[in-house]
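P.,

For your records, the input lines for the assembly:
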Amino acid sequence: EPEVTQTPSHQVTQMGQEVILRCVPISNHLYFYWYRQILGQKVEFLVSFYNNEISEKSEIFDDQFSVERPDGSNFTLKIRSTKLEDSAMYFCASSLAGRGSGANVLTFGAGSRLTVL
Amino acid sequence: AQSVAQPEDQVNVAEGNPLTVKCTYSVSGNPYLFWYVQYPNRGLQFLLKYITGDNLVKGSYGFEAEFNKSQTSFHLKKPSALVSDSALYFCAVSDNNFNKFYFGSGTKLNVKP
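Structure tokens returned:
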């Protein structure tokens, strides 16, 4: 079964450092998402991406965050200058475009745990 | 604005008994509702969804959910719980364009043998 893969599975970084989290979505999917889950809290939407541009973003997704799909397969989330409160599990997800029976189902990766010290 | 609420942090049930995990929603426009399950150290996995049509939706692993418009609820149910159903369950609602999904706070289901 196709899956979304994420790397690294765990990254520890110092406050102020840049971090790049990588995701390989399912190959025929066209919508891409980043969500995060702070330990013990709800899953929060960060950003959605379609047709090489951001289609929606949350208040969390400020100027410190950016996304890109540089090579048509990887989908990356960059945090320019990490803060302690960025410590969380970051989930990448993808879905088909359109409104068919499978189109609006998100397939999630296993997550990348970010620890900011 | 879209939102969902899961009023129970934890649900405990004995194996073989029916289980219910509750979810209520608040939406502007049509409700597009989903249930996802998260096992330890794994991403969220899709269980089922309601977009339109029959109010009773059947999904993976024997789970089902009933869309109730008058009570704005979308409770997840299973007639007979298994120990392997123990996991974290998330209710979610999407915006009208499926650009953004809003998740509930999650309910931990414990099924005891």
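Two observations worth noting. The interface with chain B takes residues 4, 31, 33, 35, 41-45, 48, 50, 55-56, 58, 91, 93, 95, 99, 103-111 of chain A (CB under 8 Å). Residues 51 and 88 of chain A are 27 Å apart (CA to CA).

Regards
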